[in-house]
Amino acid sequence: MRVGMGFDIHRVAEGRQLVLGGVVVPWAGKGLQGHSDADVIFHAVCDALLGAIGAGDIGNYFPDTDHRWKNTASGIFVTKVLELVEKRGFRVENVDITVLAEEPKLAPHQLNIRRSIAKTLGIEPARVNVKAKTMEQLGPIGQQEAIAAYAVVSVGT
Ligand code: MG
């Protein structure tokens, strides 16, 4: 068994869709700034998977200078990283996510996000956990200037 961890953060932006774990979360016309769809959960999951197999980070594979990835749904990145994980002879055992967001409230979307991550990884939702925390109004995340996510994954042979 091997373990990997990932982290990602994106700035809040007006006029963008908020996409978390492949799920569009309505948020009064606000979302996250980024070259792709800025899905912090999927970006953190990619880095966690790459970490678990010792294969670098998301920027090595999907640089934000590459026009191919402009406004891309980040589930594609997860799918491509997963292919690499499987090629190395591993399968995903479980994923644990912590999202740091002051707003919007994620509780109503937690189950959908969990199902979406599970579907993208080809595992049962019981192997995926999604937690949401605020930053108690502290710092850039607490002031709603950014949203971040941590991901920990374990993979086995
Ligand atoms: Mg990112």
* Total beta strand runs: 7
Q: What value does the Rg take, in angstroms?
A: 15 Å
Strand order of the largest sheet: 4-1-7-5-6
CATH superfamily: 2-C-methyl-D-erythritol 2,4-cyclodiphosphate synthase
What separation lies between the terminal Cα atoms? Answer: 7 Å
Q: What percent of the residues sit in helical stretches (DSSP H or I)? A: 25-40%
Bound molecules: magnesium ion
Shape: globular
Strand content: 25-35%
**Which regions are unreliable across 5 or more consecutive residues at pLDDT < 50?**
none
Question: How is this structure best summarized?
Answer:
The protein has 157 residues and is α+β, with helices and mostly antiparallel strands. Helix content is 29%, strand content 30%.
Structure description:
This protein is 29% helix and 30% strand. With 157 residues, the chain is of the alpha+beta class. It has one domain: 2-Layer Sandwich (60s Ribosomal Protein L30, Chain: A), CATH 3.30.1330. It has a five-stranded mixed sheet. It has a two-stranded antiparallel ribbon with strand order 2-3. The model has no long low-confidence stretch (mean pLDDT 97). The site of magnesium ion has 4 residues, from β1.
